[in-house]
Write a structure and sequence with these properties.
alpha/beta, 7 strands, globular, five-stranded mixed β-sheet, single chain
Length: 116
């Protein structure tokens, strides 16, 4: 399994285009944003960004950074919809790993430690 690791996308659709180009170049299976993903309200570009994430050819996972809308994320944590790996689905093709969440991919264990 190949995982593209990125950070600080800040809801920038152009950053997603860069992620997709690297996913294609390196034949990645997943993309993981390690902070400042851009989980923001609709009026601040959040909806457009999530819609763009849905168009990526690989699932997008993220650990929250200090520049997220933590109140919105907390709502997803209170009423979660989990994917088959245990991540919280926040949109089609977009999965949140809250602080303290652990998982395993290809025999390697990971821990999500978010910002703020």
């Amino acid at each position: 399994m190949r995982i593209l690791v990125s950070g600080d996308s800040h809801a920038d659709v152009n950053h997603l285009k860069s992620i997709q180009a690297k996913v294609d170049k390196f034949d990645c299976d997943k993309a993981y944003v390690v902070g400042d993903f851009g989980f923001w309200p609709k009026d601040k570009g959040g909806l457009k960004f999530l819609e763009a994430c849905e168009c990526l050819t690989v699932p997008v996972y993220f650990t929250a950074g200090n520049h997220e809308d933590w109140d919105m994320l907390d709502e997803h944590v209170k009423n979660p919809t989990f994917n088959d790996e245990g991540f919280i689905e926040v949109s089609n093709n977009v999965y949140y790993a809250p602080t303290g969440f652990t998982w395993e991919w290809d025999g390697i264990r990971f821990l999500s430690v978010g910002g703020a």
